[in-house]
User: Fold Pirin family protein from Flagellimonas oceani.
Amino acid sequence: MMKTILHKAETRGNANHGWLHSRHSFSFANYYDPERMQFGALRVLNDDTVAPGMGFGTHPHKNMEIISIPLEGDLEHKDSMGNVAVIKSGDIQVLSAGTGISHSEFNKNTDKEVKFLQIWIVPNEESVTPRYDQITLDDHDRHNQFQQILSPNAEDEGVWIHQDAWFHMTKLDKGKGLKYPLNNPRKNGVYVFVLDGTVSVNGQGLDSRDGFGTWEVDQLDIQADKDVELLLMEVPMA
Assistant:
């Protein structure tokens, strides 16, 4: 029996710090909702906008898989492993915090905002050696098809993390449809996040920035009601 949860865009946590405007799909920092702690191993989904020249000062993380997906602008990353990098739209960044790491993230530009998704996945193994990686993907490869951007396997397309999770992105033209078969339907669910547009997922209508989680299901049936861009995050539910 398919189970679902719907998070409309306007119901997300809303934190506006002036330099940072963040919308939280799950409880984070000062936003707490006991009904919205996580979706399986998906612990954090923050939709962040950072003002020109501003950012997050150096801060620590431990035992978490942290994925950043830039949507607009340029985000500069520095960490305690010596990595210095700039990520922009089309890039995927992963940080396996493991035994512990410190990093900072700043808007590299002084004349425009940077917008990015910050995602935390609970790992299936703790106290691993910290690791950083980033890749650049061709977004043409997600036009009316799925582009894998993350998996548990280092040899697969995209980045990899310490968890049985798979992320895909797609841009569908109005009227197009796709089916997404789960990699592990016995244990996993899928959280769909609409970046832009209007779509139906297993009959549920979704608009821009809506989130929809489903589990105890073998596949998703996705139909674009308008041009739409989606992020699918398949994660273990236990």
Summary: The first strand starts at residue 3 and ends at 7. The two ends are 17 Å apart (CA to CA). Residues 70 and 89 are 5 Å apart (CA to CA).
